[in-house]
Write a structure and sequence with these properties.
Length: 482
């Protein structure tokens, strides 16, 4: 009944077969009503839009403007990460990632999906690989708990920041650095730090060079939310026992399949269908709802990928606009009992994307008990995975009958290759969506102002004006309830 562990055993990928199905029957007007769903003429118009978007994508890729697409077939960094993992599993009991946003979410998503959910609580001789903790927030209580749990002498801290200026990550780094120096001595610091940063620039790179710290590079042209297949994700994941070879093989297969025609192309369709539901059917929200605990963090990762890429105030030509489809995370079946009422009867402003797994890695049967009770007898002898999937199918059908559109991404089985395929498909779809909306999906100007206020309030040099701006005028006590 235990979940099978996926471990790194070879640099040769396993055979990659059909890894993902996209079912959009419940987006069609025939299923949800013409006022709620898409019609044949919508799909015909989509062909032209997606053909143009795919051409734009391929042109940009040929010019080297989309370097994240080269990652799955780059042999250099994966080799370094596998070598690191082979040595690290004998040396460390814990790996702690110090990173936030794109430096953390992809790692968390893959780790949760591919390692047993009990990985961090199993005894070391059963686990076989270091525990992995992702310190993706600066809540002092949460960070203190990680530091108390992880024995410094048996822990590798992986500091991840391309710029080296990320306030949250660098504050954690400084705390860890001081504790290592105080408790283990200055000479031991380099044995317990791995720096993942820009190959040439930034304060972290300067510290690497001056102190001889171990480091791995982040390709300059790859943004954080597209970086899971760089050393950002591959190093800690390999250390935790994830099969990064198959993960990358699945991602490479998604890139191969991107050559398919528009309406047979899963990445293009994911982008195009959501674009039409947003612009033609006024559905500005996309609920990402996996039906598997192991995929819960995938919805978090997708939230950053989709929201940060597509939420923009300007089109490419400089025209002011408020563009974007908001990704909302949910988990089946848990959120059937907390969110579904809103999706079923609330505002008609959402499209639901179900993520399903046909065959689960653990099989648990319900005992044949209480057969004389009508409310329980139908469960006897059935499997929990079977029940979970019928819940997903039943929810999709119920939504459709109430005019609430949805579509599904279905994996035959959750594997390293399958997850790589899914994540690469979603990254491709994100960039394609940028072309459809005519915005830049690779930048994130909207997050900078809050950072500048933080710098000012914390007293960073050259940001005093931001502190003055924050405190301009006296806050009205009228609207404060003591």
């Amino acid at each position: 009944m235990t979940q099978k562990a996926v471990t790194e055993t070879s640099s040769k990928p396993s055979k990659v077969e059909n890894l993902l199905t996209l079912d959009y029957n419940n987006l069609i007007g025939e299923a949800v009503g013409p006022e709620n769903g898409l019609e044949p003429e919508d799909l015909n118009s989509l062909k032209g839009l997606l053909t143009h978007a795919a051409k734009d994508f391929n042109d940009r890729r040929k010019k080297g403007l989309l370097p994240f697409t080269d990652l799955p077939t780059d042999p250099v960094i994966p080799k370094s990460c596998r070598k690191l993992a082979d040595a690290g599993r004998k040396k460390y009991e814990n790996v702690v990632v110090l990173g936030i946003g794109g430096s953390a979410l992809g790692t968390s998503a893959v780790f949760t999906a591919l390692r047993p959910l009990s990985h961090n609580i199993q005894e070391g001789n059963k686990r076989g690989w270091p525990r992995l903790f992702v310190a993706d927030n600066i809540d002092p209580e949460g960070f203190a708990a990680i530091l108390e749990e992880a024995d410094l002498s048996k822990t590798l801290f992986n500091v991840i920041s391309k710029s080296g200026a990320t306030a949250e990550t660098m504050s954690q780094f400084m705390i860890v650095y001081e504790r290592l120096r105080k408790n283990l001595g200055a000479e031991a610091i380099k044995d317990h730090l791995l720096i993942t940063t820009d190959p040439e620039n930034g304060v972290l790179r300067r510290l690497v060079n001056s102190q001889g710290l171990n480091s791995l590079p982040i390709p300059p042209g790859v943004g954080g939310r597209f970086s899971v297949f760089t050393a950002v994700g591959l190093a800690p994941l390999a250390l935790a026992g994830v099969n990064i070879t198959d993960l990358l093989a699945g991602a490479a297969k998604a890139l191969e399949d991107f050559a398919a025609p528009p309406l047979s192309n899963k990445a293009l369709l994911f982008a195009g269908l959501n674009f039409l539901m947003t612009t033609k059917k006024n559905r500005p929200n996309l609920v990402m709802m996996p039906y598997a605990d192991s995929l819960a963090r995938l919805a978090d990762w997708f939230g950053q990928l989709w929201n940060e890429s597509l939420g923009k105030a300007e089109l490419l030509d400089g025209t002011r606009a408020a563009i974007g489809q908001t990704a909302i995370k949910a988990l089946g079946v848990t959120d059937q009992h907390s969110q579904l009422q809103l999706y079923m009867e609330g505002p008609r402003d959402k499209t639901i994307c179900f993520i399903g797994v046909e065959e689960f890695r653990s099989q648990i049967k319900i005992p044949t008990l209480f057969k004389d009770q009508d409310e329980l007898s139908y469960l006897c002898g059935r499997g929990l995975g079977e029940l979970l999937n019928f819940e997903r199918l039943g929810t999709a059908k119920a939504l459709a009958e109430n005019g609430r559109p949805s579509f599904s991404l279905i994996s035959p089985k959750l594997t390293s290759a399958g997850l790589g395929y899914l994540m690469q498909t979603l990254m491709l779809a994100t960039v394609i969506s940028g072309s459809l909306y005519r915005i830049d999906p690779l930048n994130q100007p909207g997050v900078e102002l809050g950072k500048k206020f933080t710098y000012g309030l914390m007293g960073r040099q050259n940001y005093r004006d931001m502190a003055d701006r924050y405190y301009q005028g006296k806050p009205s006590k009228k609207y404060i309830v003591p």
